[in-house]
Amino acid sequence: MPQVLLSGQEKYALLCTDSVMVANGQGNPMRQIALLRRNAFTIAAPIDSDVRTVADLKGGSLGITEGSGGEIGLVQIALENAGLDPRIKGNEDVDIKVVGAGGPGAYNALQSGDIDAYAAALNDLAVMQPLGLESRSIIPEELQQLPSSGLTLMEDTLADERDREVTIKLARGWVKGNEFAVEHPQEALAIVCERAPEQCKDMDVARAYMKSVLQTIATVDGLEPGEQAPIEGYETVEDALLASGDLESEVDLETIFTNDYLREIDAGG
User: Fold this and answer.
1) Which region, left, alpha or beta, applies to residue 226 given φ > 0 means left and ψ of -120 to 50 means alpha?
2) Which helix (H) or strand (E) segment is 45 a member of?
3) Is the peptide bond prior to 147 cis by the omega test (within 30 degrees of 0)?
4) Domains in the chain and their CATH numbers?
């Protein structure tokens, strides 16, 4: 949440693209120096459901993890693009229900028909696979490579030489860690289980979770690790925020989501 930066509680945070735009639109100059996750969220329906597109949700119900969950930006974009009301509260086309993070509650809501589809992070869906969930994404192809989240800090923090150096080192470590995990997934999972054994009590869940993470951190062909591009993806997010009213006017995307530090981030080899 942007509040951890706005309050001064933290200097650096992994924040969702849409929340960074909204914060800047409200006069809080945040800067994101490296994109670390793409396509981290989706909208999925049970594999045997008649709901095959977002437009099919009209008159139905959509589950979300929480009112401020990371999936909200994608939900608004997808609803807007499908010609539906993009608002989360007071939506006139789709009954949007908070059902919590991936787990038995969300799984039962899908299986019982209480919700027709579920919007969440890929890892929320992953942890429900061992429960028996079989699902498919209903978002269109053009929304499947949107920017999700990146390393973010306040503009004045970035202006401080020492803080900037720390930020670049953090980004470098994160990018290199992502690259290692993509190239050596089994070794990466073993490291996770060694450092955080509580996350690996159920290895079926751990493997499904790891698979979902790898989908979000893989570098897109033609782009540098951490590169915040293509700009059209950011414009799509911005357009949805403008349509929903969460953003009152356009923001300077290329300044907020800067690629000025990519060379320094990569310099550590």
Assistant:
1) left
2) strand 41-46
3) no
4) 3-39+146-266 (3.40.190.10), 41-143 (3.40.190.10)
Segment 190-210, tens digit of pLDDT = 999 999 999 899 898 899 889
Length of the chain: 269
* pLDDT tens digits, 46-59: 999 999 999 999 99
- CB within 8 A of 238, min separation 6: which ones? 21, 247, 250, 251, 253
3-state secondary structure of 116: coil
Token pair belonging to 252: 């300077």
Q: What is the rounded distance in angstroms from the CA atom of residue 146 to the CA atom of residue 107?
A: 26
The DSSP bridge partners found for residue 154 are 30
**Residue 112's pLDDT band (boundaries 50, 70, 90)?**
very high
What pTM did the predictor assign?
0.83
Closest CA to 32 of 171, 143, 161, 169: 171
